[in-house]
């Protein structure tokens, strides 16, 4: 038996300890990797993302080609004319694409809704004004967006002039949920507040007039993600959820006051959330929290 000197023994112990440490680290990493892969595979099995469908729809009255993305309900939902599935129309924030909110689109899709994500801003459109008062300078943008939402609703809801309509008889276009982030939330609130311009040729920057606009009756819910400019609808017929970030305030009158009777409106603020992060590019914890709030409000899920 070979005897080690003190120096040799100490060296052996150091090497042996280092080896055991490296082996343990390797095993630990393997376990973590294995657990992560298993969890990910399980999530994909339980909630497989459904394919979306990209369309471009021509609004001939305004000579406007509107890109939309359709997210059909998961296959387990049986949508029929007698039991139609819900419809969600989603509007993005200014400067973002309608496809930059997959986490919300997939959530509603997997809860049995048809999601229609609408692109509002086209290259030919004027830029969104940065000059106050926004209710004057941005009204053209919001009214144009509201008219677009109304056209999309008409296009898919059974208007006999549109060939696509008969394919969507299994969906409830009489009780729409509007979802919008930032300027998309302003557009959604504008549609509920001011309706659409009946004569589209007269659409201009003069602002909305409730006496000449056509009010819509099909908006049942509105969900806004930190919109800041247009007042939320106070009508008791519309259920409203406004999810707020923490870095910018809303303009006066946008949210109900403390003493205001607005039982139809729920306002939830997410601490440390940033306005510009409330989309697919934001952190996972924020996207998960947004979905959790929506699920709790409308699906009684904790």
Automatic annotation (TrEMBL):
It comes from the Bacteria. One of its GO terms (molecular function) is hydrolase activity. InterPro entries: AB_hydrolase_fold. Keywords: Hydrolase, Signal. Residues 1-41 form the signal peptide. This is Alpha/beta hydrolase. It comes from Shewanella electrodiphila.
